[in-house]
């Protein structure tokens, strides 16, 4: 079993899982997938295409004829991690193809690692395939190389990320993601729902809906109508969530929304949560609370109105769980502005919180802002912020002791079962542990538990009859 605190960084996806064995003589590729869940979905798409062409996937460098490294460029520390992973793949294997967000800066990569075979940017699936074909020619056997209807998945079989759009229309000064991934491009609603249906039919118990800006889904398509099951469905997040919830209801699966900006129409999602169609969980990147800091970030400066929205969401759905991320030490942040954020946290009482110390990122407009905050001040503010968040989390979890909740089993070992409640997304939130009566449980099981104990981040419970 594992215990928290978790990494608390929402830009990191779960570790990819590779569990297939190649047939004799089958060309085999390795995959290193770095960065966020959106990048993990890109890796799944690449491997699905390659798997359909007869390639096998290797869990290690030595068993691979070549290695694909899907990079992250979110922060300078993430870029350094990507360069390190490329170097390791070159040292261990020798044949390396680079893709992903950092691939938008090919000279940056080849300047450090000139021996890589090819560099492609994010979502450039065809170019990745071309590079693979050049390094390791395909050798398909259509009678043996069967592809699952859901494609290749790098997450455990009982949950799956479902990406509904690419890109972002925001111009936050600290972020270069729109420069790398472009403007918002939403998938047609019927295509998203068809993928959701396939995943649910394959036994997935939780759909994690992701994008760069989930609330904006369909804006670029002018919320067009799409054919679906004899009728039509609008490309709008409310309609999409409702239809996805209806599909999930038939299997008892969960639908969880991530990266939801607090636009006014988000209030239309909350009744769907109260009805039980989607999980009562909102992952909203507030980033800060002080209006002046938000203005310097080029984000909507409406923290007071945000508190009103939070109160309205909780009134409409008392069980709603709110998760968010924040940045401390942003250029120009004063002690008074930081204290304002701490006071806002006391009022908002968010359930799940992650926090970044601000980093300058090459190409970000915030680099040029005056009054950069010293590193030791950033660390001090991060420590104080996380202490506040931990206090709030501990009190909220303690209040759940004695209640009964439905949980989803993620893993089972000799010590017990590691589960999640509806309030917990994989990897970034807490866990619920069962250390008695777990012997017959397996990943993907759903069951009721009575919560018996709580810590700052995690819960412990025992199975009970429904």
TrEMBL record:
Binds 2 [4Fe-4S] clusters. One cluster is coordinated with 3 cysteines and an exchangeable S-adenosyl-L-methionine. Residues 154-395 form the Radical SAM core domain. The keyword Ribosomal protein applies. [4Fe-4S] cluster 1 binds at residues 36, 72, 101. It is an enzyme of class 2 (transferase). GO terms for biological process: tRNA modification. It catalyses: L-aspartate(89)-[ribosomal protein uS12]-hydrogen + (sulfur carrier)-SH + AH2 + 2 S-adenosyl-L-methionine = 3-methylsulfanyl-L-aspartate(89)-[ribosomal protein uS12]-hydrogen + (sulfur carrier)-H + 5'-deoxyadenosine + L-methionine + A + S-adenosyl-L-homocysteine + 2 H(+). Its EC number is 2.8.4.4. Residues 398-465 form the TRAM domain. Its main location: cytoplasm. Its cofactor is [4Fe-4S] cluster. PANTHER family: RIBOSOMAL PROTEIN S12 METHYLTHIOTRANSFERASE RIMO, RIBOSOMAL PROTEIN US12 METHYLTHIOTRANSFERASE RIMO. This is Ribosomal protein uS12 methylthiotransferase RimO. The lineage of its organism: Bacteria, Pseudomonadati, Pseudomonadota, Alphaproteobacteria, Rhodobacterales. The gene is rimO.
